[in-house]
Amino acid sequence: MHIEQASESELKTRLEELYASYDQLAERKLALDLTRGKPGVEQVSLSDSLDGVLAGDYRAADGTDVRNYGGLDGLAEARALFGALIGTTPEETLVGGNSSLTLMYQVVDFAMNEGLRGEDTAWALNDSIKFLCPVPGYDRHFSICEYMHIEMIPVPLLESGPDMDEVEKLVKADPSIKGIWCVPRFSNPTGTVYSDDTVERIARLPQIAGDHFIVMWDNAYAVHTLYDDAPALAPISEYCRKYDTMDGVFQFGSTSKITFAGAGVSFIGSSERNLSTLKAHLAFQTIGPDKVNQLRHVRFLKDSAGVTEHMEKHAALIRPRFEAVLDTLDRELGGTGMGEWTAPRGGYFVSFDTRPGLAQEVVDLAGNIGVKLTPAGATFPYGKDEADRNIRLAPTFPSAADVQASVDAFVVCVKLASVKQRLAELEG
Ligand code: PMP
């Protein structure tokens, strides 16, 4: 029954039952954790043959001995393989170390302090520096901004992607807005895939906003589909070529959730001009990336078809965990008005919205019975979810049984908080 149609006495009875269920859960002394957006043990094990795949052959295709120094761009065959995943040519692709977050940080840092178009273009020369942050979004993007004193402006993430009317209005009006964060396919946490129209409008943004503006296109889940019918993402590079905006768009990706989360390979796609500017800065930090790992990845994954085949194995492992979450939410909360949630076709998360004002309470209720949830607010700049609604659920890491136990407890907490709140509303 919908919570707003229940009478006061029905709700009171319900609340007593829910307290009883909650107390029973407390007695079980659970120790569960739905916070971590990381691959499970079986997932990382899918790539164990990275270890040994080189079998003593350390020569890249062009004869380079990958054990030695050099090659700031990354190996040619790695640039071809990973460029193909994000739609950039090998010349427009740089392959780095184990973390795309590092590359994102470096791009923002260079733009801030050195200037992407010469030192007089360094953002730091301005008093006010702002970024647009589609919400809910990825907390580590927000942390980079906070750390660098970049003011964050939240913009709504719609089903089609960021609210582009709002984004275009804001960048036209305010030149202190220097960039936008985007997770265009299976975004963290909502699983949104940006529509073709949104991708095209984002590719045009640097034209509208001007030279100082960059798009941070974090395609962390580019190939992370759960189902064959998962929506494709329009290739932003093609639109960038159409509008001549490749200089204003930085694309990122990594194999963190393809092979080893802590020992994968990251990559960046942008104009050749941008990559040569970046390399000039990078050269002060490193003589070159870990090419041994890059070669291992190329030999292991082979090509785009090899990546797809490998990702199907991941999907087979994590699909049941997502389905446990979604089936339970549908069965227990569907039609009750106690929450809304996404049903992603790929990525790593389910995004749950409570009734307004209850996310923190649900997270606390769950925490008190041993079910750790991502802190309320984490998906918003400065940790502030004004509506106090959003909770990110990450079902990949725990075992299937633990995911089920966690979500069973989660729905009890949601119901308890919702019924209590509704009763308080009725009691005025
Ligand atoms: N971007 C997004 C949107 C993510 O969700 C994550 C991992 N949680 C990352 C980047 C981190 O990527 P990497 O491991 O390549 O640094």
From TrEMBL:
One of its GO terms (molecular function) is L-aspartate:2-oxoglutarate aminotransferase activity. The keyword Transferase applies. Signal peptide: none annotated. The keyword Transferase applies. InterPro entries: AspAT_Ic, PyrdxlP-dep_Trfase, PyrdxlP-dep_Trfase_major, PyrdxlP-dep_Trfase_small. Keywords: Aminotransferase, Transferase. It comes from the Bacteria. This is Aminotransferase class I/II-fold pyridoxal phosphate-dependent enzyme. It comes from Parahaliea maris.
